Amino acid sequence: MSKINLSLPEVQIREIRINSITGYQGDAEELVEARELGLKDKERSFSQCLGCATSKAACMTVLIQDGAVISHGPVGCASCLHEFAFTYRVNYPLRGIERPTPRRIFSTNLKEKDTVYGGNIKLANTIREVYERTKANAIFVLTTCAAGIIGDDVESVCNEAEEELGIPVVAIFCEGFRSKVWTTGFDAAYHGIARKLIQKPRARRDDMINVINFWGSDVFAEWFAPFGAKPNYITPFSTVNGLKYASEAAATVQACSTLGSYLGAVLEQDFGVPEIPAAPPYGIAQTDRWFRALGKILGKEEIAEKIIAEKKKEYLPKIEALREKLAGKKAYVTAGAAHGHALLDVLGELGMKAVGAAIFHHDPIYDSGREENDQLAQRVADYGNVFNYNVCNKQEFELVNALNRIRPDVLLARHGGMTLWGAKLGIPSLLIGDEHYSMGYEGLVNYGERLLEVIENDEFVKNLEKHAINPYTKWWFEQPPYYFLKGGAGK
Amino acid sequence: MSRSGLIEQERFTCAIGALQTVVAIPRAVPILHSGPGCGEMIAGFFERSTGYAGGCTSPCTNFTEKEVVFGGINRLRDIIKNTYKVLDTDLQVVLTGCTAGIVGDDVDSVVSEFAEEGKPIVSVETAGFKATNFEAHSLVVNAIIDQYVSGFEEENKPKSQKNTVNLIASIPYQDPFWKGNLAEYKRLLAGIGLKANVLFGPQSGGVKEWQSIPTALFNILVSPWYGKPIADHLKSKYGQEYTWFHHIPIGANQTEAFLNQVVEFAIEQGADIDKEAAQEFIRHESNAYYEEIDNLATFLLEFRYGLPNHAHILHDAGYVVALSKFLLHEVGIVPKEQFITDATPEKFHEAIRADLKSTSDKKEIPLYFEPDAGKAQEILRGIHHNGRGLIIGSGWDKELANEKGYDFLSAAIPSPYRLVMTTNYAGFTGGLRVIEDIYQMVLSTYA
Q: Which stretches within B33-177 are classed as H helix?
């Protein structure tokens, strides 16, 4: 039963829509099986700074080339967004953009009196002024805790501005307190984009495939070329027009199902673009399935078989050579949900031992409702169970504790801030920002080589370990990592 | 100012950004009673700023719908209680976010439960809509003075240390050169015979130093406006007078003026200062400085391939005034239109304008107070002067400099284009470093 309803301004939060959780301790297989039984979230009686939906909504809107973004709140709620301007500057060449544009990021700068009298007029004036200043093709308005609690009518203000200015003015409801799962922010951005930008298809194009991703390198162009198609990367580096006609694509694929779960499902259910029924292509087994699923949806199965055969011929020997060098090495993974599962696939394929994982949250089933998209289930089936599988809600204290116990040979991380503790404990640690880096057969070679390099060159972390500053108490290191999780001894 | 009050390309953040003031105190921890994203926003704004227990280490109640509706006091109590178990810290400062501010949680009473048990804990209201981080820095420092330092007055009698001073200067992390600047101030003040409590960073003595704040004979404020409430508060609380230097002393002229001002004030206040020795120290530092300038002058005068001849600065008031004075008199780069982006309260505008005006009696330096840096850029986009231009600002300004074909020096936050660790821009050596940075960047444009 789909929970997608584009007639409502606000997206339904992830914990209600797809029963996502932020606390779990056990192993991967149990967690996969619990999908059927229904998962219950667990709270913590100690917690550290998280992250919230607003910056996640921002990263899916700030990088749209011809848009402008307004954070409707105090100035602090937009203060990390400059990082996406940097991301744009660093990564635009990867997408072959010839004329980069400046990122336009604004705050309505809510003050105390606005919390008393409301910020609607300030927002309306800001939208007007932003349009005059930027002549953007669309304006995205991100809500914040303050705007949400004081009850500003952001939807109406945006609708009125849209009428006045003649461009889409998209309200995106991403107040930090609304959801415990900050990836709800991605959903919120996509919900707004789907409501206001994406149009009904004029026709179906068999030469375009949507790729829902972040800002990774352009690997899909080469993969799609034999099928006679090109990737339409959404939403970073896309344009307002590109988004409008994402509805006409032949299919949608995901780089990370945690990211694109909602948009993939919206495109399928409301605009008729099929999402391929396979988790992203990490690991050989899944890459095979993924190309076959893509071939099937495009009606070009023989091309898929040809690609699989050619690529395997080229890369399997290299992968085998890496396996020999990496066999038995112990790795620990910390990442957002689906990309964490992807890294666990990669480890499995390279013959390494996944000794544990601290994954930020868990989506038991994605918005498509298809079990074929469940990457953790597929990991368990292809490479076996993962013990010490924690859903950690990006809680550093739990990660530090677990790492200290498990002492893997290498730590793989996906999010900023998480490699530090591996290094402090003298564990070689690797963070790859490009989510496409380890995809496909060639990705296993890329990633395997980087892993070898990181494990081999451990001098820096070994030196850091000797001098590491540690704010955690001795007592804490003696407790089990899930001590403060409900059901643990300290709750 | 924009009509609507909007801000584009913010160069400062909201009140809870002053959690970095806590992070800068050795072994102190900020505890956030706020929404889940506040810590991430602040960490992302300042970058590379986690210190001992900031960033992902800082405890936070991470408000959800439940706390918004029912209040978050019980959750806060749990988090504080468990902070003591998990983290080994000397001082805990609870900072509130917008959520706690609007729902009206009585944070003070929870915090006082722990304070009554003898815990070194402080609470301060920093709802983002109430103030900027420039202003909230003073709120945090004054809260620590009132709720923590005041508990140690018995063994730290007011004004009992004749040659000790409290220095109120750089705002940690907001001033990218804060660590280096504080270290340099400390070294310079030691040179004239004063022991300075710098309160933040590795050159401070941590909470012990904070406890000794009352013992200082007097205080030194180096700032056009921010931090002034701290100096005023200490004056009324402990009777410590302060001497106020209105901009950052960069280069020889201003550093000499600063040190001479402090020497005179210290003597007036009854500190034990050997004036001759102090002046000898200043002379010695100044000579070392001019040896470099003398050596460099030929390059500045003769480098025939082009050097910048004019500059625009987008920064806080302290840097805009200081760098304008320094560039004109000690580098030979003419300061043109300048932009103060720190949301300086109106009441300080006149004094800052006057300070900048005193830079030259021959030249008018146009000055804009513009917290909306996008607007400042729009103004700058329309300005043209002959010769090679230089923009000193934050990472945002690099794109503008590219667009205008100007040189660019990253010296303000946020800036992903530059790493700063212990570099100082204050003092004699700071001036030399500014020169190095400018010409390093200029020379790197060749070949």
A: 38-46, 65-70, 73-86, 98-103, 107-116, 133-147
- Out of B52, B79, B396, whose CB is closest to A469? B52
CB B128 within 8 A of CB B16: yes
What is the C-alpha separation between B435 and B294, in angstroms, rounded?
A: 13
* CB pairs < 8 Å spanning A and B: 237
Q: Which residues of A touch B396 (CB under 8 A)?
A: 82, 85
| B43 CA to centre of own chain | 17
Residue listed under structure tokens 């810290």: B89
Determine, for residues B374 and A106 on separate chains, whether the beta-carbon distance falls below 8 Å: yes
For residue A37, name the pLDDT band (cuts at 50, 70, 90).
confident
pLDDT for position A1: 52
* 8 Å CB contact of A83 and B44: yes
Class of domain A50-196: alpha beta
pTM: 0.97
B98–A145 CB contact, under 8 Å: yes
DSSP state of A277: S
**Chain A residues touching residue B50 (CB < 8 angstroms):** 417, 420
Contacts of A175 in chain B (CB under 8 A): 35
Identity of the residue in B58, B103, B416 whose CB atom sits nearest the CB atom of A49: B58
What is the Cα–Cα distance from A291 to A274, expressed in whole angstroms? 15
Flag if A396 and B56 touch (Cβ within 8 Å): yes
Give Cα separations from B298 to B304, B307, B309, B387 (angstroms).
11, 13, 16, 20
Count of CB atoms situated within 10 Å of the CB of A120:
19
Q: Report how far residue A453's alpha carbon sits from residue A446's, in angstroms, rounded to the nearest whole number.
A: 11
For residue B427, the cross-strand partners are: B250
Say whether A73 and B59 touch across the interface (CB within 8 A). no
Residue carrying structure tokens 């302290």: B318
Residues of B in contact with A396 (CB under 8 A): 56-57
- Looking at domain A208-297, its CATH class is alpha beta
Nearest CB neighbour to B17, from listed A73, A76, A469 = A76
Does residue B1 have a pLDDT over 70? no
What is A303-478's CATH topology?
Rossmann fold (3.40.50)
Which residue is listed with tokens 């001894």?
A489
Q: What is the DSSP letter of B300?
A: H
Minimum-distance CB partner of A476 among B63, B85, B374:
B85
Residue B271 confidence (pLDDT) above 70: yes
Query: What pLDDT is attached to residue A3?
Result: 83
Fold identical between A50-196 and A208-297? yes
Burial class from Cβ neighbours inside 10 Å (0-12, 13-18, 19+) for residue A54 reads: buried
Q: Which long-range contacts (CB under 8 A, 24 or more apart) does A474-481 make?
A: A475/B85, A476/A397, A476/A401, A476/B85, A476/B86, A476/B87, A477/A401, A477/A404, A479/A401, A480/A401, A481/A25, A481/A390, A481/A398, A481/A399, A481/A401, A481/A402, A481/A405
Query: What are the extents of the domains in chain A?
Result: 50-196, 208-297, 303-478
Nearest CA in chain A to B83: A46
Q: Calculate the average pLDDT of chain A.
A: 95
Mean local confidence (pLDDT), A287-294: 98
* C-alpha torsion sign, points B76, B78, B79, B83: positive
Q: How many residues does chain A have?
A: 491
B-chain residue closest to A101, CA distance: B399
**Per-residue pLDDT tens for A355-403?**
999 999 999 999 999 999 999 999 999 999 999 999 999 999 999 999 9
Residue B368 phi/psi, 5-degree rounding, is: -115, 130
Q: What is the ipTM of this complex?
A: 0.97
Asked if pLDDT for residue B212 goes beyond 70, the answer is yes
Tell me: the pLDDT tens digits for B378-430?
999 999 999 999 999 999 999 999 999 999 999 999 999 999 999 999 999 99
Residue A169 to chain B, least CA–CA distance (Å): 17
